[in-house]
Amino acid sequence: MEWFVYSLLFVIAVLMSITAVYAFNWALKNGHLRNFDAQAKSIFDETEPMGVQTDFFPGKGPHNAGASKPVVSQNS
Mapping DSSP to helix (H, G, I), strand (E, B) and coil, where does residue 48 land? Predict the structure, then answer.
């Protein structure tokens, strides 16, 4: 019975490895790994501009000093 468990775990590990390699190949082929900076900025829009805090912890808010000031990036 012990060999059955080990062989089942081995098959699951091989299938997961094949799936990971396929997903990585798919991401490379479709251009998801080309430009990390542009992809990171794609989640921002007019309602949530980059560098402006728009969400807060419960009980906190934009009334805190400096909470709504834009963050200046040093990389530009």
Answer: coil
pTM of the model: 0.50
**Burial call 45-59: b when 16+ CB within 10 Å, e when fewer:** eeeeeeeeeeeeeee
14: number of Cβ within 10 Å: 10
What distances in angstroms separate CA 3 from CA 13, 14, 17, 61, one per listed residue? 15, 16, 21, 58
Structure tokens at 57: 């912890």
6-35 residue pLDDT tens: 999 999 999 999 999 999 999 999 988 888
Helix H segments across 1-76? 2-29, 36-41
